[in-house]
Write a structure and sequence with these properties.
With 333 residues, the protein is mainly alpha-helical. It contains 15 helices and 3 strands. The chain has a 3-stranded antiparallel beta sheet. Helix 5 runs parallel beside helix 7, helix 7 packs antiparallel against helix 8 and helix 10 packs antiparallel against helix 11.
């Protein structure tokens, strides 16, 4: 559930504090957030008993709490249900923003149409085209910023896939500007619009968007990452690395920043240091997708250095991971 002005911070940002919320106020301070969601889960026979509460910090006032009893089959629906309850709680007059979000949640029909458009991960060309049509239908029916932003992202990705030909860059810019105008405080819309400007060589506009965004959201990793990207192409390698590192201070698992730092080190001729950065990514990777990303970036580093033997070995490792889940795109890569 999307609420204008709210940014959800990842748990990875507090990995060094542990997973047990003994001191949620410390969590809130570490993550630079106004609210923390904590809870407990108990299992008895075939049911899960869950207690959750959302507290405002400083002070610890409980904004929302709920006791839930569910079967394993029902757990799949719990994240969306929780998100909706919390969003509703934060749109009341008692919210920390004094009700500025009131009335800005999407209608149920809009929200479920949006979820339907995101209900699966497309792999074939036909499935990707269907995803585009589904998102286009949602955008035509409503002024829902996340839908416009994600449609813009799909156009942006398609433009990259075909080398910038066709109408996709202009379509991406149109959608991302729409999302940004609907809610200038929506970080994803700002980040994607800045990424498009960077890809189109509009560096000054990119930097301006990111600097403005960091004023309101200094801990949003995507802003630091995009700033790192545009600084790199401006030839400011060390400044770019510093921006990527700031994103990793916020989220140590932020894959684009690990790869961004490695790319800069490759460009500086420091290939061994680049691969050390990628080893860090591999060691903390949470899934095979992130491990594949590390292997692929390792391959690029070896190729850039002229070490084709080790490059082929890294590519074989990536292929083996992709083969496990029959990811044809990654296997072909």
């Amino acid at each position: 559930v999307y609420v204008p002005g709210i940014v959800v911070r990842p748990m990875d940002a507090i990995a060094d504090l542990g997973r047990v919320p003994e001191d949620p106020e410390r969590w809130a301070s570490k993550m630079d957030v106004d609210h923390c969601l904590t809870g407990t889960i108990q299992v008895s026979e075939d049911r899960y008993h869950i207690d959750v509460r959302l507290q405002r910090w400083p002070g610890g006032k409980v904004v929302f709490s709920e006791n839930i009893s569910a079967t394993k089959e029902k757990l799949a629906h719990l994240p969306h249900q929780l998100a909706e309850w919390i969003a509703r709680a934060l749109t009341t007059k008692d919210s920390v923003k004094e009700g500025i979000f009131e009335g800005k949640l999407p209608s149920s029909s809009t929200y479920f149409a949006f979820l339907k458009a995101l209900s699966s991960t497309p792999t074939t060309i036909e499935e990707k085209e269907q995803r585009l049509r589904d998102l286009e239908a949602v955008v035509q029916q409503t002024n829902y910023p996340p839908a416009a932003a994600l449609l813009g992202r799909w156009y942006l990705d398609r433009a990259g896939e075909i080398g910038g030909r066709g109408p996709y860059y202009p379509l991406a810019e149109e959608m991302l500007k729409k999302a940004f105008e609907l809610d200038p405080d929506f970080p994803l819309a700002r980040e994607l619009l800045a990424s498009l400007f960077a890809k189109r060589g509009r560096s000054e506009q990119t930097v301006a968007l990111m600097q403005e965004g960091l004023v309101g959201h200094p801990t949003y990793p995507g802003f630091h990452k995009t700033l790192g990207y545009v600084l790199r192409y401006g030839g400011l390698m060390d400044e770019s690395i510093a921006a990527y590192q700031k994103a990793l201070m916020v989220n140590p698992n932020f894959v684009p920043s690990h790869i961004g730092i490695a790319t800069n080190l490759n460009l500086k001729g420091q290939h061994a240091e680049a691969r050390e950065q990628l080893k860090k990514l591999y060691q903390i990777a949470r899934n095979d997708g992130e491990r594949r990303a590390a292997h692929f970036a390792m391959t690029v580093s070896y190729v850039d250095q002229g070490d084709l033997e080790n490059a082929i070995e890294e590519q074989k490792k990536q292929y083996a991971l992709a083969e496990k889940i029959n990811d044809a795109t990654a296997m072909a890569g």
